[in-house]
Amino acid sequence: MSEPVADGAWLDEARARVARAPLTPEAETLGRVLHAADGLTQVSGLPDLRLNELLRFEGGQQGFALALTRDSVEAALLDPGEGIGAGSAVRAVGELLSVPVGPSLLGRVIDPLGRPLDGGPPLTAAPRRPVERPAPAVIERAAVAEPLATGLLVVDALFAIGRGQRELIIGDRATGKTSLAVDAMLNQHESGVVSIYVAIGQRATAVERVIEALRQRGAADRCVIVVASPATPPGLQWMAPFAGMTIAEEVRDRGGHALIVLDDLTKHAATHRELALLGREPPGREAYPGDIFYVHARLLERAARLAPERGGGSLTALPIAETDAGNLSAYIPTNLISITDGQIVLDQRLFAANQRPAVDIGLSVSRVGGKAQPPVLRQLAGRLRLDYAQFLELEMFTRFGGISDNRVRGQITRGQRIRALLAQPRFASLRLLDQVALLAALDAGLLDQWPATLIASLRQQLPGWLDSTLPQAAETLGPGKTLAEPLRDRLLAAVKSLGEGLLAEVKTP
Predict the structure, then answer these.
(1) Distance between CA atoms of residues 329 and 331, nearest Å
(2) Which residues pair with 320 in a beta bridge?
(3) Structural domains of the chain, with CATH
(4) Nearest CA to 252 among 194, 197, 298?
């Protein structure tokens, strides 16, 4: 800090400071807006502009170069466009579109540019990374072989997800897609996995419910929430999934493990179509531009598990897509199904029948999960999907009359128990030990002896019962281990004891 200036000498001090100031030429590229409407502007006079480079308009608003043509630039606005019109000045910032990253984002709610939405302090000290980054090369990747437990029995047993996988969650509106993804995020609280939730054009009430669920259950401090509401400019909604992916990549590149939920890419595709049509790009199927497949492919290819030489981190993606009347053959659903490593299909009829999660067993698949599934689950759930599929087929025939064959009646009884077992309320995740105990009881025919209505109470009370009766059992189910016979017998005895106690309570008048 300079010495205090005496009275009357301030003018000499000012002249001395001006004399010491370096005078060097500074080049500044200035462009002009040719046309502005609906969140998109056409800019001329910036011949050296790069794709995704930031622009600053004379009113202080920001935008970025979305498309480059011979004589002009199509720029998408990141702020409301009031005051921007033909003739407005535009300056190139000289930086690519970026987002803050790092541990300081944990527990925060931000927009895709990193501006706080939770009333917290600005993220000025956090380093920034470009939102568009190349996906890891094949030689930099490792095989997906480590499970990412969701705590949902229907997913972990039948469609297991591995760290580094891209599993699509798809279904009609209001079938529990976001709920399934949030349950998976909540189950990562003690696993060391950092969760990033990206809301693209979602209603404010829906996003608030997600944030409240994370905070009430103590998982918010391991999550980052990126929100681009429907009221924001389309350019901000367009960059939201790319910004979230960059935040998750920083965790992965540091050797950690990240889970990103993109809710949802159907709305992102609609935003991309809107910007493309406003920019006069030729429309293709369902009026989407021809590069919509490439946009989502280059986004989701960034999810991967890195080789040990690169730190061994992983980035798992759970993109969400919405269908119309269960039509999986529409343009965007088929694109995403072909890009991802499997899909979890949610059915409206199952949801209406109170079978939740409303997972369609026949249409869902995980193309990687079998290799990443814990051996103990693979050992117990090997025939589960086949048995349930046979039950669904037999159940259809029982509507036409009674079944006299004992074997068929046994299959129907087993299928009803499987259905009750796979139904799981929200925020009621199951540990690996709980899942193993339930599947072992099902495999041994223990559940067939009790009414299907008892299974919900059994599943609810089982975790506490196992902790009290078998406190050391969880330690024996380490990675790569199968279910040994002594532990199997102890688990069956514990489940039988609990089930008989619950049955006695039901029979007691």
Answers:
(1) 7
(2) 169
(3) 30-96 (2.40.30.20), 100-373 (3.40.50.300), 379-507 (1.20.150.20)
(4) 194
95-106 residue pLDDT tens: 999 999 999 999
- DSSP letters along 167-236, please? -EEEESTTSSHHHHHHHHHHTTTTTTEEEEEEEES--HHHHHHHHHHHHHTT-GGGEEEEEE-TTS-HHH
Q: Who has greater pLDDT, 205 or 369?
A: 205
Q: Judging by DSSP bridges, how do beta strands 168-171 and 314-322 pair with one another? A: parallel
User: DSSP for 371-419?
Assistant: HHS-HHHHHHSTTHHHHHHHHHHHHHHHTTS----HHHHHHHHHHHHHH
Ramachandran sector of residue 410 (left: φ over 0; alpha: ψ -120 to 50; beta: rest): alpha
Question: 3-state class of 47 per DSSP?
Answer: coil
Burial letters 479-495, b for 16+ CB under 10 A, else e: eeeebeeebbebbbebb
Count CA atoms closer than 13 A to 71's CA, side-chain side.
1
Cα atoms in the Cβ-side hemisphere of radius 13 Å centred on 162: 23
Q: Is the pLDDT of residue 5 over 50?
A: no
The pLDDT tens digits for 431-481 are 999 999 999 999 999 999 899 889 999 999 999 999 999 988 888 887 778
Task: Say if residues 36 and 88 touch (Cβ distance below 8 Å).
Answer: yes
Confidence check: pLDDT of 7 > 60: no
DSSP state of 133: -
Torsion sign across C-alpha atoms 439, 445, 448, 454: negative
The residues that are catalytic are 367
- H/E element, 91: strand 89-96
Model confidence at 302: pLDDT above 80: yes
* 89-96 and 53-57 beta bridge pairing: antiparallel
pLDDT, one tens digit per residue, over 19-50 is 887 777 766 778 999 999 889 999 999 988 99
CA atoms within 13 A on the CB side of 445: 3
